[in-house]
Amino acid sequence: MSTNQELSNDLNLSFTGSVARWSARHKWIVLIATIAVLGASFMLAGQMNVTGEGGVETTDTRRASALIEKATGAEPRAEEFILVEAAEGSVEEALFESVVGDIVAKVRAIEAVESAVSYLDGAEALRTSDGRLALIQVTTSLGQTDDLEPAEPVLDVVEDANEHSGLRVTTIGNMSVERLFGEMAEETFQKGEMIGIITALVIMLAVFGAVVAAAIPLLLAIAAVLTAVGIISAVSMIWELNEFTVIVTTMVGLAVGIDYTLLIVQRFREERDRGYERFDAIGIAGATASRTVLFSGVAVAIALAGMLIMPDILFKSFGVGAIVVVVTAVAAALTLLPALLGLLGDRVNWLTIPILGRRRSTESGGGMWGAITSVVAAHPAVSAVITAVILIGLTAPVLMLELGSGGVSMLPDDTDERHAFNVVIDRFSDGIITADIVVLAPDVNTAAIQGGLETLSASLESDDFFGSSETMTSPKGDLVDVRVSIAGDISSDESIAGITRLRDDYIPAAFDGVDAEVLVGGGTAEVMDSVAIVWTYVPLIMAAVLAASFLLLFIAFRSIVVPLKAVVMNLLSVGAAYGMVVLVFQKGVGSSLFGFQEVPVIESWIPLFLFAILFGLSMDYHVFLLSRIKERYEETGDNSGSMVYGLHSTASIITGAALIMVAVFGGFALGPLSMFQQMGFGLAVAVILDATIIRMVLVPASMELLGDKNWYFPAWLEWLPKISIEGKRGEEPEAQPNGQPEAQAAFGD
Questions:
Q1: Hey, how many other C-beta atoms are within 10 angstroms of the C-beta on 382?
Q2: Distance separating alpha carbons of residues 543 and 546, to the nearest angstrom
Q3: What per-residue string of b and e applies to 503-521 under the rule 16 or more CB within 10 Å gives b?
Q4: How far lies 105's CA from each of 116, 120, 121, 165, 599, in Å?
Q5: What is the CB neighbour count within 10 angstroms for residue 429?
């Protein structure tokens, strides 16, 4: 073998190759530094500052809420509606009255409760005419986003009455829904994490055929996630983040962390099989696979950065979490992984499973991939057309997309909270949702404004959708808030139509010519404002991400055609995922088969989130595949042969990586919350399509059709910097005895 210096020159090691070689040579420094970082991250993780809020501060709804808080000195009060039900048949009046009275007395004794009203207080509207149902309306001093711990005793009272009173007692409101969402989010997190990790380990065993090699990607992904959680905890001390940020961070981190490591470990084993010494094999893997990982990480980060542009804490939180975990996953792959490979050497193949341990050469053209590639290469035009028609057909349901927020309708049908909500909406006139009509003027007590309020009140009373209302005037007399109840969920068609009538008809008619500003707040209005923001920003963000991704690929591959095709193909997979989400969740096609909940609307944050994640992950596959094709093309100048080689050499890795991503995303989709079902399902579907239809058919078909034109690069652009992502291996090493790599001590230098 050559000397180290000669090998470094021979192998044309890039920055990533040099980092990999240094990390392998100084493995103990890297490992000790990693332990220190993980320790610091663990301590920071408990300090995370999160909120359940989303939304844009400049919308009418947020302004209305802020103005009410400023005028009254308190946030809008949180309400809980306790439902007491007797069984079918005659009602034992004494028992019913005793249970209701006991609940009211216990709830009133709780410090955080401002009031508790029932039919026993003369509010006859809080009991149905048949006497079977009664509502207890509880108002607390807690705002909707405050710590709900002081109000937990209210929910404890409800649970105790339900268990021991002989009647069914359930509740719906801010406190119960907030707690249930938290419990279901935790269940989603635990289930997704467990399913993803176990399935990923099984798949990696199939890919590597060895327990140690299979465990390494999983360990590095977990390390990347833990480090990312520590970093975002530190970020949350400056900027408050959404409470679901950790779930998104974990999901993305497991997926990309395993994928990145998988690629590098496989390349290391491949180079060892070629006969390279351990550190040289690590250097080559660093100069090729690690370089691809670094580039892929940049591409993913660019796509994710689009979420940071949105003026909404939800998108910013998800963007921060996902970007940070991609960065930590790349950092671990570039430094910690070479250190582990330097420590283990060929012991990375320890505990080989005989039935799985056989590895096919990258030069092999057999198997399923070979058969499919041969068919596609023989009929590229037909293959491309059929694939495009399938993907466009799957995208078509996007035309029926309705955005919103599931609200209570997002909850599973078998929960007590969903039951209580349905009963209240069906049997009681007011419902549990409210809208705030905020009138601003130097003096709201003028005759003109009071006349407008009377006209507005008359309009609301004539509309069956609106229920009772209460009016509050600020001490300074510069604001009046009319809070009116509405009979529906926040994103139902009826609620949207009602708020639209209020904004477009009733308010303009009541305050025509009046010198005052009128805002409409509340849950439904906030959903409508959020959807409007999404439709405004998403096209701009998509255009920016597409342009940035095209430029990055254009410079890296020094081709106009390759990045253009990559962008189009990624859009096809994202569009198909959108269509499937609409078809399954909004239209209910196959929802029961998957165990998903049919909902009237798709969560408003889903389209942009899916686009950012999917576009980034799709770029991963294209970069992995195209880098191997370009590497071969640079060596041979044979487009068709390079395409076949690239497909064969990445087949097992990309297939395994895709299956792992599907397992991780699918695990989170199996949770009880509809919004995470939509997210996990959409991601899993897109990954499946991208790793099968697009990579197996569309990529080779387009490569075959265009031939050498794939690599067209205008001569007048040669001045652009060369940041090619495909490394160069250099000359093959001399064959070792029996074709095996040279012997080495696994723990020595």
A1: 12
A2: 5
A3: beebbeebbeebebebbbb
A4: 8, 11, 12, 15, 38
A5: 13
What tokens were used for 79? Answer: 């309400």
User: Helix or strand or coil: residue 280?
Assistant: helix
In this structure, which amino acid lies at residue 307?
M
pTM for the model stands at: 0.77
The reported pLDDT for the residue numbered 748 is 38
- For residue 85, the Cα-to-chain-centroid distance in whole angstroms is 39
**Tokens read off for 586:** 């909004």
Q: Rounded to an integer, what distance in angstroms lies between the CA atom of residue 611 and that of residue 608?
A: 5
Q: Which residues contact 362 (CB under 8 A, 6 or more apart)?
A: 270, 645, 648, 649
- Please identify which residue in the block is written with the tokens 């059709």: 705
Q: State pLDDT tens for residues 681-722.
A: 998 898 888 878 887 788 888 888 888 887 788 888 777 766
Distance of CA 191 to CAs 297, 663, 684, 687, Å? 27, 11, 16, 20
Query: DSSP string covering 582-598, please?
Result: IIIIIS-TTHHHHTPPP
Structure tokens at 105: 């007395």
Residue 390 has which token pair? 């399938």
For range 656-669, the mean pLDDT: 82
113: enclosing H helix or E strand: strand 113-117
Burial class (CB in 10 A: 0-12, 13-18, 19+), 592: exposed
Show the DSSP H helices in 352-446 as ranges: 367-378, 380-395, 416-427
- 487 in Cβ contact with 480 (< 8 Å): no
pLDDT digits (tens, 9 = 90+) for 168-220: 999 988 788 878 887 887 888 777 778 878 888 888 888 778 888 888 888 99
Q: Are 569 and 95 in contact (CB under 8 A)?
A: no
CB 440 within 8 A of CB 474: no
Residues in a beta bridge with 404: 603
**CATH numbers and ranges of domains, the chain:** 1-45+210-333 (1.20.1640.10), 60-179 (3.30.70.100), 365-400+558-725 (1.20.1640), 424-527 (3.30.70.260)
DSSP-based three-state secondary structure for 730? coil
Measured between its terminal Cα atoms, the distance across the chain in Å is: 16
**C-beta separation of 174 from 145 below 8 A:** no
For residue 172, how many other CB atoms are within 10 A of its CB? 28
Q: Is residue 387 a contact partner of residue 307, using CB atoms and an 8 Å limit?
A: no
Work out the pLDDT band at 551, boundaries 50, 70, 90.
Answer: confident
What is the gyration radius of the CA atoms in the chain, in angstroms? 30
Pairwise CA distance, residues 383 & 375, whole Å: 9
Tokens of 730: 């250099």
With CA atoms as reference, report the closest residue to 367 among 699, 698, 696: 696
Rounded CA gap, 177 and 157, in Å? Answer: 16
CA 90 to chain centre: 50
Cα distance between residue 157 and residue 104, in whole Å: 10
Three-class secondary structure of residue 673 per DSSP: coil
| Among 472, 642, 536, CA closest to 69 | 472
| C-beta separation of 252 from 329 below 8 A | no
Residue 99 and residue 118: Cα distance in Å, rounded? 11
DSSP H or E stretch at residue 226: helix 211-236
